[in-house]
Design goal:
The structure is a homodimer.
Chain A lengths: L5 E6 L3 E7 L2 H6 L7 E3 L2 H10 L4 E4 L2 H11 L4 E4 L6 H12 L3 E2 L11 E7 L5 E6 L13 H5 L1 E7 L8 H14 L3 E5 L3 H16 L5 E5 H8 L4 H11 L2 E5 L5 E5 L2 E5 L13 H14 L4 H15 L11 H7 L5
Parallel strand pairs in A: 1-5, 1-9, 2-7, 3-8, 5-6, 9-10, 10-11, 11-12
Antiparallel strand pairs in A: 2-4, 7-8, 12-13, 13-14
Helix pairs in contact in A: 3-10, 7-8, 8-9, 10-11
Chain lengths: ~325, ~325
């Protein structure tokens, strides 16, 4: 296997989060499904923004958050995702580069504006998301640089890429190049409703060995196999993919492979402020462990540590050096 | 005195904050004066942004923060300040209106973009600010609605208004209308370097009774009277203005009038995360007290409470209802 320039290359929707605190009844009035991600068009985006409270803007995007988390762990990280050359697009590009991530996807010169996700955080810390995909719709195979994919040890993809019209072609192209270069391909299932939209395709990706490693939370797993029985779903998952990591919030995670299952506990958290990015940062920690050849348990602990950091503040990107945090918790690389 | 529609009308620079954590040496390398506000042009803004870390965008502006704080206390609040009709300008307008503030200043259709303040927060929680005034430069007397001024019990102005070219004319016009309607006019001195730029004019505003109430921190007070002796400065202040409130960080504040001086303690704070907005929110609490006819001590305690809230998180606007916080601390109106 030739040497690499990056530990992990992520491909995902490049999104700026617009985050506001809200009460439960706002979600009800707006007909939102608490905890989920809904796709919205521009008029709906304007309507939600007009009705919601004061907000902060911060770069987001599921895979982008993961990649920024990896950089914070000290991993060599790169990202592919589409913004427009507008105010929010320039902020997205600034933030991800300033975090130490290689990001070279050319912005769209015209067309829809940079993607925005209206994130509503209820007093319990749960987030409910409404995404206007905008310029992220324009990500396509031409944005995938084959040399970059081949030069990255691991390719990380988000299930949300199935929503924009051409991004799945970019996904499949990248996975193919990665496997030709003997790289590992990982996929996060993203969201239970996203799984519901693309169940057959996600299962095909797994069974055809297009992906080697799956990240899922319990809701996504239940949605994938359309069962409410956890053990049934885990058994199916074990048969369908090389390695799967199932996150279970405060119950920690399971690392599932043909050889067995490793249960890894979560890190205790004083107060959950905003769960946005919990899954994304879990993946960051896990992949940071993989990048340095750590065992399943250490990978799981690193994931749990990064998730614990991000849910204790507003926003989906780490506010402290995850490398330092790992050292302080006896998980130095 | 005719009845009013608003407790407080604020006039100030309408600014979006771009906030990033940074190390001390970044300030040194960039030649920044720690803790101060520096005015920058657009090329310098681009250079700072290019060099600084990942950021969040959130509405700011000194007087605007105060007015939002007043609304959070349940006061009837209005704001005048100039943005451009661009992405950040629309975010500013959304945020201040969503906070319950009446805001009707027409945005500029062309010209420079909405003002941005690059706020660099060091590990000790201190903030260092670099402001590109942009569209805020265009605030002028025409933006001051005389009926709005006359219908507000108190007019609150920021010293920073002396920086844009026409805003001081708007300031003086508003103060004149307010006094004709028998309203109270308050001024914050804003920043020690701002005082240094406009010392003679600020003293004239006080001595000519254009302003009735002054907010200043210790550095601004020392700058105003060019003395390092606190008692000398306080004595001069007492002679120059009807009422003055001097904030002293963890030492609380002094409320100074001809009748005497009331020392009010600060609220204890577990951890200072970001001091941005401390002075702004102190003024909000103090004015919220004034609006309900509270005594000096209660006004000072409300100011201290609001300042304590805002320095415990990133950003210069309250993240919780200040009215509820006041109730919980035995300071309900």
């Amino acid at each position: 296997m030739p040497s690499t320039c990056f530990d992990v290359l992520g491909i995902g929707n490049a999104i700026v989060d617009v985050i506001a605190r809200t009460e439960e009844d706002f979600l009800l009035k707006q007909g939102m499904h608490k905890g989920a991600m809904a796709l919205i068009d521009e008029p709906r985006a304007e309507a939600i923004y007009g009705a919601m409270g004061p907000a902060i803007e911060t770069s987001g995007g599921s895979a982008a958050n993961t990649i920024v988390g990896l950089a914070s762990f000290g991993a060599r990280a790169a990202f592919i995702g589409k913004v427009k050359d507008d105010t929010l697009g320039r902020a997205f590009a600034h933030d991800i580069r300033a975090a130490g991530v290689a990001y070279a996807t050319p912005p769209a010169a015209d067309g829809p504006s940079t993607a925005r996700c209206y994130v509503l955080v209820t007093p319990d810390g749960e987030r409910t998301m409404n995404t206007y995909l905008g310029a992220a719709q324009d990500l396509g195979p031409a944005d995938v640089d084959p040399d970059l994919v081949a030069a990255s040890s691991l390719l990380y993809l988000e299930g949300y890429l199935w929503d924009p019209k051409n991004a799945k072609d970019a996904f499949v192209k990248a996975a193919q190049i990665a496997h030709e270069a003997e790289r590992v391909v990982a996929l996060t299932l993203s969201d239970a409703f996203c799984v519901d939209r693309f169940r057959a395709e996600f299962l095909h990706l797994m069974r055809s060995r297009t992906v080697d490693l799956i990240f899922a939370n319990e809701a996504e797993l239940h949605s994938l196999y359309e069962t409410s029985d956890f053990n049934t779903a885990v058994a199916a998952l074990r048969a369908d993919v090389g390695t799967a990591v199932v996150t279970r919030s405060e119950k920690g995670c399971l690392v599932i492979s043909r050889e067995g299952t490793e249960a890894v506990p979560a890190f205790p958290v004083e107060r959950v402020v905003d769960t946005t990015g919990a899954g994304d940062l879990f993946a960051a920690g896990f992949l940071a462990g993989l990048a340095r050849g750590a065992d399943d348990r250490t990978c799981g602990r690193l994931g749990a540590l990064a998730a614990a950091e991000v849910i204790q503040h507003l926003g989906a990107r780490p506010e402290t050096s995850l490398r330092d945090l790992a050292s302080e918790n006896g998980l130095a690389g």
